[in-house]
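To illustrate the input format used throughout this study, we show a single complete record. The first block contains the structure-token representation of the backbone; no residue identities are included at this stage. The design step must infer an amino acid for every position from geometry alone.
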């Protein structure tokens, strides 16, 4: 069920039959505030994910496979190799998350 505050019925003035009605979204200013709030939440979540992924990349670069926590992909008991590719992937994903946060926190579009 859609909340009544979100929908309003409008008579289509282009139609010859005014009895025809259709549902339309109510684009009042309060919905613009919600959109800005959503962008802020996305920016914060992307920033937190970026920090976590960069920290994960540092762990992959610094620790050998035997020292990784057992729930990390690439944990191998007794292995001395480092998972450089896992670290590069985590670093690139972290940078992408930071870019998303940056673009989401930018000014409102001119439209």
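Output of the design step:
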């Amino acid at each position: 069920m859609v909340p009544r505050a979100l929908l309003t019925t409008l008579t289509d003035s282009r139609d010859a039959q005014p009895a025809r009605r259709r549902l339309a979204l109510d684009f009042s200013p309060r919905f613009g505030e919600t959109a800005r709030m959503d962008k802020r939440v996305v920016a914060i979540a992307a920033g937190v994910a970026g920090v976590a992924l960069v920290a994960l990349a540092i762990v992959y670069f610094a620790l050998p496979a035997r020292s990784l926590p057992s729930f990390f992909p690439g944990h191998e008991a007794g292995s001395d190799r480092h998972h450089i590719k896992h670290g590069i992937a985590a670093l690139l994903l972290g940078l992408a998350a930071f870019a998303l946060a940056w673009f989401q926190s930018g000014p409102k579009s001119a439209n």
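Structural context for interpreting the output: The chain is about 50% helix and 10% strand. The beta strands are 7-11, 21-25.
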